Amino acid sequence: MKKVLLLVVLMLGIGLTGSQAQQIVFSGHVTEAKTGQAVPFASIFVRGTSLGITANEEGYFQLTINRSIDSLSAGAVGFRPLSRAVSKAPRQTVNFALPSSSVSLGEVVVHAGENPAFAVLRKVQAHKKQNDKAQLEAFEFDSYNRIEVSLSDVTDRLARQKVIRDMTSVAQGVGEMERNASGKPTVPVFASEVLSRYYVRQRPKREREEIKHSQLHGVAPRDGSVLSQVLGSSFQDYDFYPNWQIVMGKDFVSPIADGWRITYDYDLEDSVYVGKDRCYQLKVWPRRAQDLAFTGRIWITMDSYALRRVDLSVDPKANINFVDQIRVFQDLAPSSAGPWLPLRTRVVVGLKPTKKQTGLLVRFNTTNSNFATNQPHEAKFYDQPFASAPDALEIPAGFWEQHRPDTLSAQEVRTLTALDSVGKLRSVRSALELADLLVTGYKQVGKFELGPVPSVFTYNNVEGGRIQVGFRTSGDLNPNWFVRTYAAYGTKDKDLKYGVTGYRVLNRPNWTLLGFESSHDVDQVALLDNGYAIENPLFDAAVRFGNIKPGRPLWRQVTGFSGQTDLFHGFTQKLTLRHQRFDPLYDFAYYTSADHQPGAPTADKFALSEVILESRYAPDETLIQNKNRRYAVGLAKWPVFTLRYTRGFNGVLGSDFAYHKFNLLVTHSLQLGQLGRTEYIVDAGYIPSTIPYPVLKSHLGNESPIYTTSAYNLMRYFEFVSDRYASLHFEHYFEGLFINSVPLLKKLDWRLLASGNVLYGGVSQANRNATPLVDENGAALPTFRPLGTAPYVELGYGVENIFKILRVDFIHRLTYRDLPGAKSFGVKVCAQFKL
């Protein structure tokens, strides 16, 4: 492999050397003549030809030309073009200082003593509806997206790592490495090019993207289908007409938001031509540097007061972790129906843990064309938000040179060439496999994925040392099947456990599945009905460590079949048939007859046969598919509703109870702009039947020092059980709302938060009497406690972003504080990774 790689690098080097014999390389910097500031994304070109290139976000460029020329020109919107004479030297530095293209200001009514920019902003608000693309019934366009990722300011320690040495060696073998703004070489890591058709229908809001061609270069996963969808136009939609623009998962206030004067200051700098449009040039900056707001310039057309162009960045003082820079450049054009659509968008994001550590530089380039408006397709057309052509990843030679809407610089050509070799390096593939293992908990071996690795060995006081092996199938084995299985053995109980689950994909557009499950394992009553269906390898391992007896362990045997489908986008129906057998590993009994009196017959094992109907409605959830799995990505603006009904049958396959269960779950992340973001969960349930308490709802407590979002953090394990309940869990993140206003505290970049849990619940008298208080020998049996007439309430406040990773919560328990072992106040901590 090394010999082949060396040969490829040598051949590339020889090829480049020969081709550059007749070449002239121009490099330089484009700045504003008036201020000396860089002009981002300026055009560098040879007049009368198609030769040219676009400068980077710092105004630097490098252009290679295969002929002799006498002059080189530069231009940018808002500036007059400038030409410079050049020589025939093989390498030349040509700098441009562009003069602005000023015009006379249009008529603007300015109130006495008022900032003249405010009059322009009021006009923008008055014309917002006619210019906002949200007013269109529908629109669509072709989109080209290119993303480039590189390591910046590589530390000496990281540079000595084999994988980085190999990547650097390949990049150097192709030609001179690209340098960042400080002049240091960067190491290319990944690049992608995606060509798609993007469709939007506004009422109801629906989107669809058809990936026509996609190519990944460098450090990319084996299966690029999911990544190609995420790198498409759907995830590069920067729109400043809404009040908030989400960047890196954060809610930034738009410079033309309804409450613009609260967040921003403005300066009416000039009037210029942007293309053929006469525009006001406004400088914008946040009133408080730590706020989630932009600084830079916006251009507003004089005739329609539309947003024509933005060149905005985020102040380095803004309270965002690990982000060194964010810069957004966008040109817009009017559609045939009036509202404006994005023509070109360029985004630069720099990520850096600390100033002394290696950073990650990411560049996004989006160019849109072939616009069509107010031609909506039928609703079913949008049911599959992403559709990828079967041959999307099969790119013929020379395809991008013919279909790429812009021209790559010589440096970008060298980078893509190097990345095609980097992706084949053994050290790079090993690093990717390690990263995949850390994220998913599985190690890919051929067409199978072994794991989950965190569960290979655990220890608890019931099973002793638990040794587990398992695997799941990848889409390479069969794109229509997914199977996950494991086997485990306990050194203390000396019992074998196993589990297998999976599904068959019957229809992809509606994601119709036929599933199955079978398992025989030790479980805990406290975890039976707490929504842990989400696969989480770390959680699965953690619940099997230490003392699990407070959770009331039992043997659980499950056999089930299920089917699900999407009736339409966001509306999923699921039917499950399930049989379970329970054998408690603690002292337990329940009455087997309607006579719940001492001396009545009892049993300590039971079985359940159930039918479960579930409807889930997530109207704006974004879903992507790979060969055999589906994922939800991004933030949903609307609540997600899940309604579940469970019917238990007595006497079916030896089941012991007939019962009904009803459950409603609502989850939502609510955007509040400058006030922050609130995430809440509403959970309500009702069980009108008489059944023993392991089948009721056991509310999840938390006696550990670690804060857990899904638990009642001052409630003890198995403290309360209900057959009817309603709960509200909320967390509000203030971001920098208050701390950013305190001079001494804002330098810490801490963020305030508030949380709370409110639970109403109860248990009918029949269910209270369903289990005896003593066994046949008169010894007391473990029982349960229902809530009284008062709700369980705990409220908290805290600080996150301590040293960028720590969160500390101070929690007060307001009710049921007189119960044995109850704590009225507690401090919980957790580590989290948030930008």
With helices defined by DSSP (H or I, 4 residues minimum), what is the helix count? 12
Overall outline:
elongated
Overall pLDDT confidence: 83
In total, how many beta strands? Answer: 45
Note the main attributes of this structure:
single chain, 835 residues, mainly beta, 18-stranded antiparallel β-sheet, eleven-stranded mixed β-sheet, 12 helices, 12% helix, elongated, disordered N terminus
Task: Describe this protein's structure.
- By secondary structure, the protein is mostly beta strands.
- About 10% of the residues lie in helices and about 45% in strands.
- The chain contains twelve helices and 45 strands.
- The strands form eight sheets. The protein has an 18-stranded antiparallel beta sheet that branches. An eleven-stranded mixed beta sheet has the order 14-15-16-17-18-19-20-9-10-11-21.
- A hairpin with a 4-residue loop joins strand 10 (about 185-200) and strand 11.
- It is elongated, with a radius of gyration of 31 Å.
- The two termini are about 40 Å apart.
- The model is unreliable at about 1-20 (pLDDT under 50).
